[in-house]
């Protein structure tokens, strides 16, 4: 029993969908590269919102709350990030032994 009807795409629609999927894969690969190399500022500058009208409403959510506006996001994601990112992609910071001893 089929609960939904599958949409039949035209050839042009299929091509657009494939191109969109490839663009998303490319974006995610760049994000993973920047994150793995701790290039957080570059990630924000190149992959996040760049249009002036949306910079103030951009948001980044964590389990403990949200950061709204690109300045607030950058303060948390780049400037307050003194610890190395986790290697298991859990997004929890993993501190090196000398992480908190820097002044």
Topology:
Layout: H1 11-36, H2 40-47, H3 52-55, E1 59-62, E2 65-68, H4 70-79
**Main sheet attributes: strand count, strand direction, barrel closure:** 2 strands, antiparallel
Low-confidence stretches: 86-103
What strand line-up does the widest sheet have? 1-2
User: What value does the average pLDDT take?
Assistant: 82
How large is the radius of gyration?
Answer: 19 Å
Note the gap between the termini.
65 Å
Using DSSP, what is the number of strands? 2
What amount of the residues lies in strands? 5-15%
The helix-and-strand class reads mainly alpha
Number of helices: 4
Helix content: 40-55%
Q: How would you spell out the order of helices and strands?
A: HHHEEH
Q: How would you sum up the global shape?
A: elongated
């Amino acid at each position: 029993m089929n609960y939904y009807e599958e949409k039949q795409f035209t050839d042009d629609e299929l091509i657009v969908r494939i191109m969109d999927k490839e663009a998303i894969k490319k974006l995610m690969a760049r994000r993973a590269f920047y994150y793995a190399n701790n290039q957080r500022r570059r990630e924000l500058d190149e992959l996040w919102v760049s249009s002036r009208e949306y910079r103030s409403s951009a948001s980044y959510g964590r389990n403990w709350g949200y950061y709204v506006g690109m300045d607030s996001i950058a303060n948390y994601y780049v400037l307050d990030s003194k610890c190395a990112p986790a290697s298991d992609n859990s997004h929890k910071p993993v501190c090196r032994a000398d992480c908190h001893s820097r002044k």
